[in-house]
Every structure is written in C-alpha cells, then in structure tokens.
Amino acid sequence: MNDNQDIIELLRALLKKLEPANTSTQKAVQEWPKAVELPAGMPFDKYLIYKESFLITELNLDLKGKRILDFGCGNGKLTESLLNYDPELVIAHDTKAVSFLDSNIRFIENFNEILDEFRFKKFDIILMNDVFDHLVPTSDYERELFIETLHDSYIRRLSSIVDGEIVLRCHPWFSKTGGHLAKKMNMAYIHLVLNKMEYDAANMANEGVYTHKILNPIQYYRNCFNRSGVQIKEETVKSVELNDFIKTDILPKAIALLNGTTMNTNVLAEIMKIDSVSYKLVV
C-alpha cells in the first residue's frame, strides 16, 4: 500500500466489519473517536514534534547539568529538545542512524559501545520515550531470547550505566494509539479490529513500527523491572474513557481476534483505558 487511495480502500473494508452493529459506515465514521486530538490548526507532523516534550514536562524532569542518554531516539526530535534544558552531555542511540545538526548531540548506533564507554562515567538520566513496547532483537544472541528475557536484558544493561534514573513512557498495544496508525488513520483502537494481514499493510503505509502485543501491560512492566533489579520510584498512569461505540462495536471484535486467550470484555475494556504509563526507575 503506497498512497492515500490504498488507505481509503482499507478503511472502507474495515468499516464494513462494524455492520450490522452500526446501520451504516457513515455512522461508524461519525462515532469513531480520534486516536490523537490535535491542537487547533496543528498538522500531524508538527504534533509529532510537539508531543516529544511530554515526557519532560509531564514528569517534571530536571535536566540542567545532567548527563543524558536518549535510548531509542527515533527521529531525534526529543533529543534536540533536551538542549533547551542546559544538560552537560547528550548521547543519542537508535538502531538506525540519525543525523543531528547540533554538534552538542553525539549519536552512537552501537549499544555495546555505549555500555563500554559509560561503564564508569555513568549517565544521570536515561530516557526511553515510547521505546519499551517496540524493542526488537538486534543480535543473534537476542534473537534467541523470549520477549520477557529481552526486555529484562535491556533494563538490566541500562541500569549498569546510570547513577540516577531510567525514565520510560510507554503506549501499550491496547491503548488507543498502540498500533501507531494515527498519522494516516487517526481512529482510536483501529488496530484492534485488524487481522495480521490488514494491520501489516496499514502499518507499512504508515510508520512500520513493530509493537509487542502485551496483555496486562502494567503488571508486565512491574514484573520486568522487579526481575531486572531496579525499583519503581514513580509510576504515572494516564487513562481515557471508552465511549459506547468503542464498547459495543470495537471491543467484541478485539476480543474475537485474541485467539487462545480467556480474557473477557470487562477486563479488556479496563486495559484499553490505559493511554500511557510512565516510570521513573532507580537502581
């Protein structure tokens, strides 16, 4: 799927799935809440830059004079905004190379290089903004690990190079934006009514981000941190309410796609209310 027409055709097919619960696809479109409520007049691309600062402002992070690692920096917009807070050092890392115009930001693609260099001169803060749920194996060793062990391994290794806090912000799979389709399909929970083929097609036309489909995300995060030997200093959960359309039309179809689970609609509804979870972790 390479253009907007493909997206439109996919949406038409998806909306037909909602009948006969809805009398028409027009009604479905009218009642479907947005995944992202854009500030007035702000285009989506600008919003993506604007939202990167949420991690800093909502958690009241003090970055002045700090040594910071932005782990999983993505497009680098959050990394660039860190310079506004007068840090001592900013290191950026991702599995794909990112170019920064400001020489005060140093990009290191090899994670092992970071572990070696900062084993003793550690970071004050490590940021993981919408990264944890998207971690994938990057080496032959990691490809042999179960997903739980992979997550534990990353947190444990990061904890070895920080003297302060590891700060995470997560958007779980079952959140309204968990499928990362909002850029072209700004419809809350749309990813939960797609089968694998449909989602893969929509995802490739959008961001191509892999997201782990973690059931009971908060308990999963807590268990991971406990196994990894770090302590939760602060846990912040942002929740949303589900409207009647989501409850009656989306929720049952999401349950139907959860093959092999015994989860009922009430339990899944509570999980879908979790919009984001943020943590401050200490060693």
Descriptive notes:
The chain is an alpha/beta fold and 283 residues long. 37% of the residues lie in helices and 17% in strands. It contains twelve helices and seven strands. The chain has helices spanning 4-16, 25-31, 44-51, 54-58, 77-82, 111-117, 140-143, 147-159, 196-204, 217-228, 244-256, 265-272, and strands at 67-71, 89-93, 105-107, 123-129, 162-170, 231-239, 274-282. The protein has a seven-stranded mixed β-sheet with strand order 3-2-1-4-5-7-6. Helix 5 links the parallel strand 1 (67-71) and strand 2 (89-93). Helix 8 (147-159) packs across helix 10. The protein is globular and about 55 Å long. The model has no long low-confidence stretch (mean pLDDT 84).
Structure in a nutshell:
With 283 residues, the chain is of the alpha/beta class.
